[in-house]
Design a protein that fits this description.
With 119 residues, the protein is of the alpha/beta class. Helix content is 43%, strand content 21%. It has a single domain (3-118), classed as Response regulator (Rossmann fold, 3-Layer(aba) Sandwich). Keywords: Phosphoprotein.
């Protein structure tokens, strides 16, 4: 089974995403901010990362840049999940190494469409 790290400061978002991803047979772990996520990735790299944009301590974009610069950090597929609809910020995330993005709020079909290719 594939592993997914959910990185979001909202416990509600983590809970909802966890349920949906586990229904898709992912092994799921969680982090509340980018620093916690980076620490987890240095111990065990997930296959896929569900990543929020705005978080305390280390933002999603800061995490992504750190991840992609880390040995083996080029391997996980990263899906940015954000309320940002600004095409410039989405382009910035892609340039930093995001593989895809989806907008909040999301539903099961949207999440499945984004994560199914990684199963």
């Amino acid at each position: 089974m594939k592993s997914c790290l959910i990185v979001d400061d909202s416990s509600v978002i983590r809970k909802v995403a966890r349920r949906m991803l586990e229904d898709m047979d992912f092994i799921v772990d969680e982090a509340e901010d980018g620093q916690e996520a980076f620490d987890k990735c240095t111990r065990e790299m997930p296959d896929v990362i569900f990543l929020d944009w705005q978080m305390p301590i280390m933002s999603g974009i800061e995490f992504l840049k750190s991840l992609r610069g880390y040995n083996g950090g080029d391997k996980p597929k990263v899906v940015f999940c954000t309320t940002e609809r600004d095409i410039g910020q989405i382009a910035m995330a892609r340039k930093a190494g995001a593989n895809d993005h989806m907008l909040k709020p999301f539903d099961q079909p949207t999440l499945e469409a984004k994560f199914q290719p990684f199963v």
